[in-house]
């Protein structure tokens, strides 16, 4: 936000300087005919009727502009029904008609294409074209197109988890619209702002804006948007702990959606109701909602939500002690989760499949699935980290380019003004000096900010955000360095692989929040207990790798015993008496192995032996023939 303010200050200075010498920009506005305006309004009430009307209209002998408008309406109606494949196809067909790239209609279709790509989970591919259309709308002062561009760019930012940026877009739209303009009203951006607050877990703010939108939609009988708003309001109400009230809002949303044949909207509401019923311990009631949602998501060709519903149905089957039926649901989900974009879904499916195997007593298969899933999680995390770094770099480069462009524009303006009126040279020089001062401040700030960003990115890459311990990559780098030093100088180096016993049961019984608290306390305790020179890293969900330089196995076991005693006291620190937290540890002397890989493998074997023989113990590797209770 501070960066945006500096850039805003810079552009404001440019605008003040330019205002005296540049003519006013002409105002443009998209001019839809009366029939198109009526259909755009009708999409907000009954998009299915619009699609049926468009299907019945002949397309022969229509101009390219008329055909493109028709495909834009088709894309909008399908998008309103969450039928993103159909929406994308229509937008791309309209763009294939080779419209004038300087026309509003061309940019409407480009934004419709970006909106559909976002709905299909391909947000990164849509960002550049959405930003280009936003800039075009600003440059040409096309107010209606600008509203649409702001909304699309805001939704893209949400999908890319750039919530501050999304909030800025929607806040701009909210402040711009005192009255209804084209497709948008102030209530629309109120609903969008509510969605941002829901994602950043501020339900009170979300409810405030959702209520504003709900009131307007009810007064103006805008059914589709009312259904969507009630869905968001229902989710917000559930987040505040009002289960029955939230379920009632979701059911009302589904009824309205069905009345206008928005089957996907109804399906989302049913799935949300089912999820809450499962959390309330009412799986039998939830199952009927899930079955109905699955049918509707299948009709809408929505594989992501089909997979989510199938996993939830598998969980209910496991609660009913029906692992074979659960496996059938998971098999159906696996057949849908094909392709790189489904990696998070495949991870969720694998977790559920491991539970099913375990409930059947097939622990070997469960272990194999979880072992593979650990690699999938590492791959997913790597992709997320890489994508975030690229996004931050791209954003930084864009802002730098904007500053350079603004500086160049100012320099050109200065030359023009010197040619136009020499009597204004002194005034102009003063303005330039002031502007260059702002530029210097901005560039100085950019320099120091880039250093802070670099440090922050290094922290994010090297240290786990939950435990404060080193990430797997950083742990392996430091561990290899310590291993090489120990072998080169003949020093002791002890390695320990540590696992929190029955951690999954902690998550299942007490909830993931308690699980996160345990991990957080574990990391804090480790950093306080061990030395600054020790390598302390998190290499899996509840698995850790510790290395102790210049320390033999006996001394390391003694340190780990004391550490394990502290960990056993975590339940009292968390004020959860029924909670039990213990450690299983595999420990080896790294001097006896020819590579770090062998060290970790032997420590893993020792850890497995600790688990197999009852857990809550420290087991040394084969080079040290002792077994010690922790």
TrEMBL record:
One annotated GO biological process: cell adhesion involved in single-species biofilm formation
Any single GO CC term annotated in Swiss-Prot or TrEMBL for this entry: plasma membrane
Keyword Transmembrane helix applies: yes
Listed transmembrane segments: 428-448
Cofactors required: Mg(2+)
GO molecular function, one term: diguanylate cyclase activity
Keywords: Membrane, Signal, Transmembrane, Transmembrane helix
Keyword Signal annotated: yes
Enzyme class of the recorded protein, top EC level: transferase
EC number: 2.7.7.65
Domain GGDEF positions: 491-623
Signal sequence coordinates: 1-29
Reactions listed under catalytic activity: 2 GTP = 3',3'-c-di-GMP + 2 diphosphate
PANTHER family: DIGUANYLATE CYCLASE DGCM-RELATED (PTHR45138:SF9), REGULATORY COMPONENTS OF SENSORY TRANSDUCTION SYSTEM (PTHR45138)
This protein's name: diguanylate cyclase
């Amino acid at each position: 936000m501070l960066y945006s303010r500096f850039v805003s200050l810079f552009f404001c200075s440019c605008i003040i300087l330019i205002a005296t010498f540049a003519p006013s920009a002409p105002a443009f506005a998209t001019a839809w005919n009366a029939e198109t305006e009526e259909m755009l309004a009708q999409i907000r009430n009954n998009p299915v009727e619009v699609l049926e009307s468009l299907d019945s209209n002949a397309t022969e002998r229509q101009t390219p502009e008329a055909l493109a408008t028709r495909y834009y309406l088709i894309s909008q109606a399908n998008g309103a029904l969450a039928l993103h494949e159909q929406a994308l196809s229509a937008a791309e067909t309209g763009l294939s008609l080779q419209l004038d790239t300087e026309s509003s209609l061309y940019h409407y279709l480009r934004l419709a294409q970006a909106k559909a790509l976002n709905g299909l989970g391909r947000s990164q591919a849509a960002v550049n074209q959405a930003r280009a259309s936003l800039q075009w709308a600003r440059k040409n002062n096309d107010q209606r197109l600008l509203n649409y561009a702001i909304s699309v760019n805001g939704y893209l930012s949400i999908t890319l988890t750039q919530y501050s940026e999304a909030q800025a877009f929607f806040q701009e739209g909210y402040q711009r619209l005192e009255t209804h303009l084209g497709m948008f009203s102030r209530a629309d951006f109120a609903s969008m702002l509510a969605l941002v607050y829901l994602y950043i877990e501020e339900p009170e703010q979300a409810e405030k804006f959702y209520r504003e939108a709900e009131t307007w939609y009810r007064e103006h009988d805008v059914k589709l948007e009312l259904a969507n708003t009630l869905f968001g309001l229902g989710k917000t109400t559930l987040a505040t702990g009002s289960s029955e009230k939230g379920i009632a809002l979701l059911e009302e949303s589904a009824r309205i959606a069905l009345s206008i044949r928005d089957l996907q909207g109804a399906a989302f509401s049913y799935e949300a109701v089912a999820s809450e019923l499962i959390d309330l311990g009412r799986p039998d009631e939830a199952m009927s909602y899930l079955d109905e949602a699955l049918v509707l998501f299948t009709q809408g060709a929505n594989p992501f939500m089909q997979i989510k519903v199938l996993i939830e149905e598998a969980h209910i089957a496991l609660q009913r002690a029906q692992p074979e039926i659960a496996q059938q649901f998971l098999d159906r989900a696996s057949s849908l989760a094909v392709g790189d974009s489904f990696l998070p879904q495949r991870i969720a499916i694998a977790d559920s499949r491991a539970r099913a195997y375990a409930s059947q007593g097939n622990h070997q298969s469960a272990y194999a699935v979880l072992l593979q899933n650990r690699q999938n999680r590492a791959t997913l995390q790597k992709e997320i980290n890489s994508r975030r770094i690229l996004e931050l770099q791209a954003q930084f480069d864009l802002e730098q380019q904007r500053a350079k462009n603004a500086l160049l524009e100012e320099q050109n303006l200065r030359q023009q003004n010197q040619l136009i009126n020499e009597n204004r040279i002194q005034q102009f020089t003063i303005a330039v000096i002031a502007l260059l001062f702002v530029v210097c401040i901005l560039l100085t700030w950019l320099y120091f900010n880039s250093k802070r960003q670099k440090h922050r990115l290094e922290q994010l890459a090297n240290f786990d955000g939950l435990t404060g311990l080193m990430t797997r990559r950083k742990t392996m780098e430091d561990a290899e360095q310590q291993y090489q030093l120990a072998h080169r100088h003949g020093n002791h180096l002890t390695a320990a692989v540590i696992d929190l016993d029955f951690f999954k049961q902690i998550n299942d019984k007490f909830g993931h929040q308690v699980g996160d608290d345990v991990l957080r306390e574990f990391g804090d305790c480790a950093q306080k207990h061990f030395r600054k020179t020790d390598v302390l890293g998190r290499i899996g969900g509840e698995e850790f790798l510790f290395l102790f330089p210049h320390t033999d196995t006996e001394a390391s076991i003694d340190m780990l015993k004391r550490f394990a005693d502290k960990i056993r006291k975590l339940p009292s620190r968390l004020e959860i008496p029924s909670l039990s937290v213990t450690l299983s540890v595999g420990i080896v002397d790294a001097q006896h192995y020819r590579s770090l890989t062998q060290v970790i493998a032997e420590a893993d074997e020792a850890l497995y032996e600790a688990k197999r023989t009852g857990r809550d113990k420290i087991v040394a590797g084969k080079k040290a023939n002792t077994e010690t209770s922790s």
